Amino acid sequence: MIQNVLCFLEKSAEAHPRKTAFADEHTSLTYGELTDLSMKIGSVLGRKTGPRRPVPVLAEKNVFTLGAFLGIVQAGCFYVCLDGSQPAQRLNRILDTLQADLMIADKESLGLAGDITFSGEILPLEELRCLTDDVLNPGLLASIRAQAADTDPLYGIFTSGSTGVPKGVVVSHRSVIDFIGHFTELFHITQDDVIGNQAPFDFDVSVKDIYSALSTGATLEIIPKRLFSIPTGLLDYLCHRKITTAIWAVSALCIITTLKGFTYRVPSHLNKILFSGEVMPVKHLNTWRSYLPKALFVNLYGPTEITCNCTYYVVDRDFEPGTPIPIGKPFPNETVFLLDENNRLVTEPGQCGELCVAGTALALGYYRDPERTAMAFVQNPLNTCYQETIYRTGDLACYGEDGLLYFSSRKDFQIKHMGHRIELGEIEAALEAVEGVDRAVCLFLEEKNKIAAFYEGTAGKRDIALGLEHLLPRYMFPNLYRNLPKLPLTKNSKVDRQALRRLYE
User: Fold this and answer.
1) pLDDT 10s digits, 412-469
2) In which residue ranges of the chain is CATH 3.40.50.980 found?
3) How many other CB atoms are found less than 10 A from the CB of residue 290?
């Protein structure tokens, strides 16, 4: 039984020592080189800090950053990737929460981060990547490994908090080992695959990229960030690097279709497209499927707190614009169910409830934040016999007549307007079914008591109103419309709803 993700690395390195494990625009590391680098970094870290301690990594997105992650794991610690482009105030809040002894950083990211405060030792990544063999301490690494357990933390990811203080989600080795085993088997990821990484390393979608590669012996290609604003360059890169697997945010896929990228070039090696993060617009899904008819398309759902994803749907049919795409069924070894406002189990088709998750996939909680951990990770109200922790996602979903789960909206996207309880997700789906609307997002402006619609596309307000006549009751029509050349995105490629809200402040 595998107890540590390093077993993935060791198995693949033994089977394919000279095969490329990780590659970026400029360089690459074979499985043998990756093992060697991680052991050297682990030997250095293991002499400076104790096991199960956090080690933040402030570095550019490249193969050596991934080598640093695994070096941290070799030392029995867990890594927390930081983005130097974030405001220094936010970075300092994260560092204050971590209270780490060490930080790994490259010069470029340190310069970009600006005025950050860190009382521990900063180890330059430029030096760590050039360590010589004399730093290796196999005895120390073996001792650390002997004390490790599969419940030890592997990584931490900081998500936004409602109070403005980031929440550090900590995930264990066991959760990743369990999830990745099912993930790679269900979607047929093998040593023959080339995975094209889009997600930032401080975003949990990257966990699927990294550990799917390590566990199967596949190759992970880090796609340059700049190419996701240049569809022709992106498609050239996919073709040149022979990418077979894209586990991307919805917005990244939509960039190619919005700008008609497939009229330039079709990445014929791409045979698995898995998407998550937001509701996939049907128009864009249909375009992707028309150009890659033999590819596997999968809709993934799940928050960071449950280790990447808890449900999936393999797209097996065409969808009409405005028709919802299922989030599907639970991954193996994950219990997914719906609770109503009175904590009663929801089973009837069409009845909404809060989506809750139990099982090995649950995160360890929020780092050094027992109060918020206790609010989100709670006792299953359906179980009065023994302790069973569940995570309440805050997302509303329902079962369809087909028995599959369908995402409805966030609990806080549910509004009461003109005496009606309204799900903004329903309005967004209707808008995207209108001719000339490519993507749409709705907000409720409480101070104005108005529903605001933001959209990409060529449709005018009158065209949209006429299109909605057959899709929505009048009380659900947006009161305000804003046509934008491009919806603003967060660094994780989700629509930046706060930026949209500021347009009306």
Assistant:
1) 777 777 767 688 888 998 899 999 999 999 999 988 889 999 999 999 999 999 999 8
2) 6-171
3) 11
CATH 3.30.300.30 region(s) of the chain?
418-502
What ranges make up the beta strands (E) of 18-101? 20-23, 28-30, 54-58, 78-82
- Among 102, 32, 34, CA closest to 63: 34
- Considering only CA atoms, which of 54, 118, 49 is closest in space to residue 81? 54
- Mind listing the pLDDT tens digit for each residue in 7-30? 999 999 999 999 999 999 999 999
Compute the distance between CA of residue 329 and CA of residue 365 in angstroms, rounded to an integer. Answer: 24
Give the whole-angstrom CA distance, residue 205 versus residue 213: 13
Q: Decide if 357 contacts 393 (C-beta within 8 A).
A: yes
Amino acid at 496: D
Given this model, what pLDDT does residue 199 score? Answer: 94
> Does residue 75 contact residue 37 with C-beta atoms inside 8 Å?
no
For domain 6-171, the CATH class is alpha beta
User: What is the residue whose two structure tokens read 């596309």?
Assistant: 457
In DSSP terms, 196 is beta-bridged to 221, 246
Report how far residue 347's alpha carbon sits from residue 447's, in angstroms, rounded to the nearest whole number.
Answer: 36
Quote the CA–CA distance of 287 and 23 in Å, as a whole number: 29
**In the structure encoding, which two tokens stand for residue 287, read together?**
């375009």
- Give span(s): CATH 3.40.50.12780, the chain: 223-414
Residue 124 contacts residue 106 (beta carbons within 8 Å): yes
Farthest CA pair distance, the chain? 73
181-200 pLDDT tens trace: 999 999 999 999 999 999 99
With tokens 């993700």, the residue in question is 5
Give all strands (DSSP E) within 59-118, no chain letters: 78-82, 102-105
pLDDT at residue number 309 = 97
pLDDT of residue 162 exceeding 70: no
CATH no. for 418-502? 3.30.300.30
Cα separation values, 88 from 93, 110, 112, 273, 438, Å: 9, 10, 9, 35, 35
Q: What residues have CB less than 8 Å from 487, skipping those under 6 apart?
A: 439, 441, 454, 455, 456, 495, 496, 500
Dihedral sign from CA coordinates of 233, 225, 500, 476 = positive
With beta carbons less than 8 A apart as the criterion, state whether 157 and 203 touch. yes
Strands 78-82 and 153-159: parallel
What homologous superfamily does CATH list for 223-414? ANL, N-terminal domain (3.40.50.12780)
